[in-house]
Model the fold of this input.
Amino acid sequence: MTEPPGRRERKKAATRQKIADTALRLFLERGYDAVGIREVAAEADVAVTTLFSHFASKEALVFEQDEDFEQRLARAVTGRAPHEPLIPALRREIHALVRHCTADGAAPIWRMIDESPALRKYEESMRLRHAETLAAAIDADLELSRTATASRTIAKFVIDAYALAREAADPEAAVDEIFPMIEAAWEARRPSVRAWE
Done:
């Protein structure tokens, strides 16, 4: 008898979460560089191949919600109400992501990331990928009618806003300070309409 797809997906998600939680606990207890993949797999009671079926690299264990964040950014564009302006939708999503990443208990994780060249490099590549995904979502929305360069620029501004706000003393206030500048840049690239049209 085969398992229903819902149960199988739940089991996969639970295994993935268990691996990520175990890795993070070990990294925070002993230091990121001091813990190997085999140790994480053994502690999580999974095979190394199972670990790698869920996470492509050791760095990915730290950023286990990376894919979810990337999808949420794209959905902020594609899932907004008809004729809803783009920038307020992105601002709401960045506020939500910043709240998540600055919640209680997040500081030691970010300290670990800041202290590890490998994790900083991974985070940078992740941010570039998120910006490209966001730019593609903006560019695909015909209602927005901007150039690919404008879409990529705004996407990079939005991703940088997240990074700057996360590091600020008051992350929420930082988002509110940054987004009017992003909106001004977006509006500056509005296609002009000739007076006689």
